[in-house]
Predict the structure.
Amino acid sequence: MKRKIAIVPGSFDPITYGHIDIIKRSAELFDEVIVAILVNPDKKYLFSLDERVEMINETIKEIPNVKVDSFSGLLVNYAKQVGSNVIVRGLRAVSDFEYEMQLTFMNKALDENIETFYMMANKQYSFISSSIVKGVSGFGADLSKFVPEYVEERLEKKMKERG
Ligand code: PNS
């Protein structure tokens, strides 16, 4: 039987417990999960691609059917390349809906075989985003509810380096 591969795409700048929840739940549902990091040369990231890969690898090291990869260009082309037609995204609040709907419809228009699945974020993660976590880091706040320790350490270090 054909193995079903799901892609969990995103910027992961950095990975949060919200992402981790979606990745783990996807790994229960699909044979293989690829956490696909977008590389967009026009976008400024806090963490380099290597740093984002390292943090995700640390996160997924004990989940055998999950791997990390990166892509540039269109997600539908990447999906085809890895033999998948499934995208999984997390949905936190109504505010996510419009953007996610655009993403889904655009991907469907580009490739009608693509299916996007949405998982409601667990409620303790419904307000966490990489951006909001970055916004409170660097001030010595306890971030342990939002990101794993190895991400928190890197965030604090990065913010200190930036001054
Ligand atoms: O974590 P993010 O930044 O919300 O993830 C957005 C992402 C990476 C899923 C989206 O920007 C994307 O797929 N970009 C690749 C370009 C593409 O395929 N665009 C068409 C769909 S809008």
